[in-house]
Write a structure and sequence with these properties.
With about 190 residues, chain A is mainly beta. Chain A is built from no helices and 16 strands. In chain A, strand 11 and strand 12 form a beta hairpin. Chain B is built from 4 helices and 9 strands. Chain B has a 5-stranded mixed sheet. A 4-stranded antiparallel sheet of chain B has the order 7-6-8-9, sandwiched between helices. Helices cover about 30% and strands about 30% of the residues of chain B. In chain B, helix 1 crosses helix 2. Chain B has one domain: GHMP Kinase, N-terminal domain (Ribosomal Protein S5, domain 2). The chains are: A mainly beta (about 190), B alpha+beta (about 250). At the A-B interface, strand 10 of A face strand 3 and helix 4 of B. Chain B: Its main location: cytoplasm. Chain B: It comes from Stichopus japonicus.
Chain lengths: ~190, ~250
């Protein structure tokens, strides 16, 4: 099938026949393209209406939204961090985020100590709690699936998780404290 | 009009165009690697370069952050060698500040700003050679650069100018025609939906003639849209063929 190129502002179809997907917008009951790229329709089962999308050569840029899971790198002692990716898509540039002490874990919030949860350089999975103040996004790790996924020990070796709050260095066998994420098996990529 | 006859008896303009004819447009997308999007356009002797960065985190003053839409930051400059007389221009002079504001308003109307709250898009345009219609060259170049960057837009923004000489509306006026002191209309249009996003009249124009001149400017915008959309389509298919090869 020859692919059709579409340009911003081009009318692709009516909302009665298609669902508006990525790269499109709806105006007056019609679907228009908002990018320059190729028109795609996703095939669906009978009875459903197909989704229209416009695929651009450049990956459409994402920004963190409320409730989306983000990958962050902890940059500072006080839970401030740089957001590297949103929902599996990497960002072109980092956004600033912050995990407050109360949002590190769900239970025994008052006993949490930041240095026992994150260290600078850790790669952490977190969820966007709110858009926060003007300075940064507010993030939370108060879920089993959220927390540290990658961290290095003082010896410079990747730590291995042994419980939800401890990681061990395979070289020196020193235990270090972290708020460890219980990574879901379907997200683990085995090489 | 002193000395110069802008429209000859045969109906030709000084540069040999007919009243409804545009100057030759040449454009190129993706001229810079380091920017997210870039474009270069020539409309006759007016040459403009546009680069786009973003959307990214808001830089500078935090108070500028918009919580429901993206912040559009425009910067306009003219090269020292862009006019007949070489002149170094300060960056923040009145003329370019005004132009920046116009460009900002224009693109706020065209970009789907609500998609990227709390972020910023930078649009930098520079005039390399000025020969009338600087604003329209900037808008057209920036449109191409935004498309190159993959930033969602409602529609193209095409801008054109129109003048009025000896009872005839003329489109896409050059510096020579501009400087004779006749009326000038500047229009930026969303061509597919026929919406005017920017409109400016310099000097006085009788209301009886207004409609005709506006129609001419709008027609100029649509002609520009035809040229630009062909360029964009070529660019998309060219890039796709490059990708298939590798």
């Amino acid at each position: 099938m020859a692919e059709t190129i579409c340009i911003p502002g081009e009318r692709l179809g009516s909302v009665d026949h298609y669902k508006a997907g990525e790269g499109t917008y709806v105006r007056h009951g019609f679907i228009f393209s908002n990018l320059a790229g190729y028109k795609r329709t996703t095939p669906v089962d009978d009875g459903e209406i197909p989704e229209l999308t416009v695929v651009s050569r450049k990956q459409s840029s994402v920004i963190p939204e409320v409730r989306s899971v983000v990958t962050v790198k902890s940059t500072h002692k006080f839970c401030s961090c740089a957001i590297l990716g949103v929902e599996g898509k990497s960002l072109r540039e980092t956004f600033r985020g912050m995990i407050r002490r109360e949002d590190i874990r769900a239970t025994e919030k008052d006993k949490v100590e930041v240095y026992k949860s994150f260290r600078p350089g850790d790669i952490v999975l977190a969820r966007v709690l709110s858009l926060g103040d003007a300075r940064s996004y507010l993030l939370t790790t108060a879920e089993n699936e959220l927390g540290v996924v990658l961290a290095q020990s003082e010896a410079g070796v990747n730590l291995v998780p042994i419980s939800w709050c401890e990681m061990i260095c395979p070289k020196t066998h020193v235990k270090e404290l972290r708020k460890v994420a219980k990574v879901q098996p379907d997200y683990i990529q085995t090489t | 009009m002193a000395g110069l006859e802008l429209l000859s008896d045969q109906g030709f303009r000084l540069d040999g165009r007919r009243p409804h004819e545009l100057r030759k447009i040449q454009c190129k997308m993706g001229v810079f690697k380091q920017a997210d999007g870039s474009a270069y356009i020539e409309q006759g002797n007016t040459k403009a370069l546009a680069t786009v960065y973003g959307p990214h985190e808001v830089t500078g003053s935090r108070s500028k952050i918009e919580h429901d839409k993206v912040l559009i930051n425009c910067q306009y400059s003219m090269a020292t060698f862009s006019t007949g007389e070489r002149r170094s221009r300060s960056k923040g002079d009145r003329k370019s500040q005004e132009m920046q504001l116009h460009l900002k308003k224009t693109f706020e109307a065209a970009i789907l700003t609500q998609l990227y709250p709390r972020s910023q898009i930078d649009i930098y345009v520079q005039i390399l050679q000025a020969d009338g219609g600087n604003y329209s060259a900037c808008v057209n170049a920036a449109t191409l650069a935004i498309i190159d960057a993959g930033i969602p837009m409602k529609d193209f923004v095409c801008a054109s100018t129109a003048g009025f000489v000896s009872d005839t509306p003329i489109v896409d006026i050059s510096y020579l025609e501009e400087s004779q002191g006749g009326p000038e209309l500047v229009v930026a249009l969303l061509p597919k939906s026929d919406q005017i996003v920017e409109f400016q009249v310099n000097s006085r124009l009788h209301l009886d003639n207004f409609e005709n001149v506006l129609d001419m400017a709008v027609k100029g915008c649509k002609d520009i849209h035809a040229v630009l959309s062909r360029a964009v389509k070529e660019n998309v298919s060219e890039l796709a063929s490059h990708m298939n090869k590798t």
